Amino acid sequence: MIRRRAFLFPYTLNNCEIIKFKDLLVNMDIVGVDSLTKELRGKDVSYIYNGSNQGINIGDETIDYDVLLLGDGSRIGDEFDKIYEYAERAAQKGKDIFILYILTRKQREKFEKLCKDNNVGCRIFSGLEVPDKIMNCEYEILNDISIPVIIVSGVAENTRKFEIQLFLNKYFKSAGYNVVQIGSKNFSELFGFYSFPQFMFCDISEAKKIICFNELCKGLEYQEKPDLFIIGVPGSLIPYNNYFTNKFGIFSFEIGKAIKADAVVMALDNAPYEVEGIANINNICRVYFGNEATVFSISNFRIDVEKSIQEKTLGYIISNKENVDKNVKRLKERVKIPVFNLLDYIQLQKLAEYIENDLSDMDIKLL
Fold first, then answer.
1. Among 93, 119, 239, 292, which residue has the least CB neighbours within 10 Å?
2. Cα–chain-centroid distance for residue 171?
3. DSSP reduced 3-state for 114
4. pTM greater than 0.90
5. pLDDT tens digit string along 275-311?
6. Closest residue by Cα to residue 198 from 132, 252, 106, 129
7. Please, what is the angle between helix 345-361 and helix 161-174, to 10°?
8. Would you tell me how many other CB atoms lie within 10 Å of the CB of residue 165?
């Protein structure tokens, strides 16, 4: 199949995985990005996450492309007019539009009309749609899942848990495993696996969501006969405080009750966790997922509390690899569970190897 050239806008922390793991994109190559933040234009795309140079500069609109990837999986706020105008210019040039935002009905209709009027393709990534028979399940009975289940969750937003999901996907597939994966992002399909299902955001009971998610997983197990599941959980494990609720950890609870985890990857931010805090996290993991964390990863993001409260939106302090290494070393001295630096490729490899060995040591059938 022909690979299409894609241009990403607006480039943010919430979609930088598309750049970092661009080699995993299905039938698509990223040729350029642009940002709503003028100060970022002209800088390398790695600047936004404090990583190694990628050779793609932000804001080069002279690049030719086939598809505009519009959005980062969030909702569009006050910037809607600017974002729509950007999409309008692309559509008028004959570019197809793939929308990664979570849209209101009015916004959806406006984008669909734009694409129709300009005779260009329009695809809206709004999460996995499931068959009616799953939604119409009448009995509150949970199916047993007979293959290993890896759940990737995070204690807060922006712990880079989607990067972990992508790395695990790459690792286990390269090792020859048949992997079925449900990602935490609504645009997970860009990477060839299932997006988090739409019904989990709908106005139905929590019990119904749990049963339906379990039915979905059992159906995928039956149809695809995988060796293992990898499931990414949106949101976070727990609320941060009354201002920043992190979706209250509701998705973690629902997924954990729908399907028991055999391994749990818990993504931490770069905060100075103490033994008591880690113990609390593991207690919640046991209640939600049926197991404590198998491994911890630490990202280079940490919530900037003062700035976040002042601006009433989450702001972050971004650290370098050396700073995260120090925090990893510090936490290793305090807990027995393995801890890995998310910025270090070798440590990510070791994280995946540890999970594979841990599952192999249990009474669970792997290849």
1. 119
2. 17
3. helix
4. yes
5. 999 999 999 999 999 999 999 999 998 888 778 778 7
6. 129
7. 70
8. 28
